[in-house]
Specification:
The protein is mainly α. The chain contains 23 helices and five strands. It has two domains: 356 residues, no CATH class; 89 residues, no CATH class. Strands 2-1-3-5-4 form a five-stranded mixed β-sheet. Helix 12 runs antiparallel to helix 17 and helix 17 packs antiparallel against helix 19.
């Protein structure tokens, strides 16, 4: 073993029993309490949002519909939100939707939200188990689990539908635990579980595996495994991004990677540009690619401060984790999408698992357990404070994240109110025949996902049988005037009849 960090039980060294598992199989009331608190928080954010029609075609509707299709032997495509029928894998190479698809028979439109909540809690348990393995200190382990579950990256992700990278990121503690215990087969399993969630996961996991060789508690006998895993992860992402996805839709750069087009015309051009003009590329770590709603570099500065308070301070003491974080930051900050470089959305969830592990590596070297507990408590306090800030005060609230107050602030009454007649809308949707082809406004698509032909209006493939609108929701990219003209057209068209006008919902049925 390359390093022997101190334990939390007073022994000062790890034992082989701790490495293999030291009886941490018992549940305990503090652990259940912490998990219950975060279960309530996640449900109050994501489930309430879904019930109040604050989830949308992109992305919950699209992914739930894809999972339903996979469960019924149908290849999911992009027709829900585009005018073409390219496979959905050209948008994100996400095999997790296939994995979870059988659950649609049990949970229906709620399937992916259930998966996301369960994955987050399971990741928290993994963080606790890893911390116990390294410290045998329940108090420190509990605080670090809470840092993972309560980080802004995690909480923000639940406010914005479902994303497979959230599920994948929560496997990171279990991956490190398998490495620590020298369970190579299990480590490979967790690695592939994370890799197949998104096409870009290998860019992070490859660096993570290589950098893990330098972790002080990593057994030297795992070095070859880590080298193989790092190479496998990078090759996986390179093949999928550079060859597989472009081949599926006929473009050199797929829809998602176009956000890096300012760095070069294709991936070879990006690499060449970086080698020739590295400072031109690296400047985007602090300089905005675009105007970013007139916030300039303040948006990225705010992000770095929040990240530092959430545990990134530990990266300054442990270079392997710093390398892992830099690979994530490069994907965020070099993008032309201001959404990626800010505090909102799911783009920070990988840090929810990574930063507590880096904090753990620092804390397990503190031999005095009272001081370790104090530092763990202060670290948790900083995480909570940062999360509260991101929910209440960030710059993005005054720019491009309109409506995020209602979607995230589960502790305010407005989160549980809606201008819609929510119960009435749900009653109307239940009246639409199962399996009927539908084009609907974005906020209704996730609730109609269990069918073969479903489109986000104004997309209308194959002459849908029903059009379903909310009077108060203008479907992007239409303007209010254009949407009004569309409603007038359908009201007067002999091809359609207004079947329902109730609870703020308009349902047009195509005439036979």
């Amino acid at each position: 073993m390359t390093g022997t960090p101190p334990g939390g039980g007073g022994s000062g060294r790890f034992t082989e029993t701790a490495r293999k598992g030291n009886g941490m199989a018992r549940w305990n009331w503090p652990l259940l309490l912490v998990l219950s608190v975060f279960l309530a928080v996640y449900v109050l954010i994501s489930f309430v949002n879904h019930w109040f029609f604050r989830t949308y075609a992109l992305d919950l509707g699209l992914y739930t519909n894809a999972a339903w299709k996979y469960a019924h032997g149908i290849v999911a495509d992009r027709s829900l939100f585009t005018w073409n029928h390219d496979p959905l894998l050209t948008d994100h190479f996400d095999l997790h939707l296939i994995l979870w698809s059988p659950l649609t028979y049990l949970f229906g439109e709620w399937t992916l939200l259930v998966v996301q909540v369960a994955a987050a809690l399971w990741g928290g348990v993994g963080m606790y188990r890893l911390a116990m393995a390294l410290t045998t200190d329940r108090t420190t382990s509990m605080f670090l689990m809470a840092c993972c579950l309560g980080s802004f990256g995690m909480i923000q992700a639940f406010g914005f539908d479902f994303h497979s990278n959230v599920v994948a990121a929560m496997a990171l503690p279990w991956y490190f635990l398998a490495l620590f215990r020298r369970r190579k087969g299990l480590a490979w399993t967790w690695l592939f579980f994370m890799l197949v969630a998104r096409e870009n996961m290998g860019l992070w996991l490859g660096v993570t595996a290589f950098a893990s060789i330098g972790i002080n508690w990593m057994d030297s006998r795992m070095r070859r495994t880590l080298l193989l895993q790092g190479g496998t992860a990078l090759v996986w992402s390179a093949v999928v991004i550079v060859w597989v996805m472009p081949a599926m839709d006929g473009n050199k750069m797929n829809f998602q990677t176009l956000r890096y087009a300012h760095l070069g015309p294709d991936w070879a051009g990006i690499v060449k540009n970086f080698l020739r003009h590295p400072m031109h590329v690296l400047q985007y770590f602090v300089v905005p690619v675009e105007d970013e709603e007139h916030l300039g570099n303040a948006l990225k500065l705010e992000y770095y401060v929040a990240l530092l308070a959430s545990g990134a301070w530990a990266l300054l003491f442990r270079w392997p984790y710093l390398l892992m974080a830099l690979s994530l930051l490069a994907q965020k900050m070099l993008s032309s999408s201001d959404a990626m470089s800010g505090l909102f959305y799911q783009y920070s969830v990988e840090f929810a698992g990574l930063l507590p592990i880096a904090m753990l590596d620092v804390l397990q070297r503190v031999r005095s357990w009272p001081w370790r507990h104090v530092l763990a408590f202060l670290g948790f306090g900083a995480v909570v404070g940062t999360t509260i800030y991101t929910l209440d005060l960030p710059l993005e609230h005054w720019s491009n994240a309109h409506g995020a107050h209602d979607r995230l602030r589960f502790y305010q009454a407005r989160h549980y109110r809606s201008k819609l007649d929510v119960a009435g809308v749900h009653r109307v949707l239940k009246r639409i025949p199962a399996g009927a082809s539908i084009s609907a406004v974005s906020g209704l698509v996730p609730h109609l996902a269990g069918r073969d032909r479903l489109y986000a209006f104004p997309i209308m493939h194959d002459d849908p049988e029903y059009l379903v609108f909310l009077k108060d929701e203008v479907p992007w990219p239409l303007t209010s005037a254009e949407f009004g003209q569309a409603l007038d057209h359908y009201r007067s068209s002999p091809e359609w009849r207004l079947a329902v006008d109730s609870a703020g919902v308009l349902v047009f049925q195509r005439m036979p």
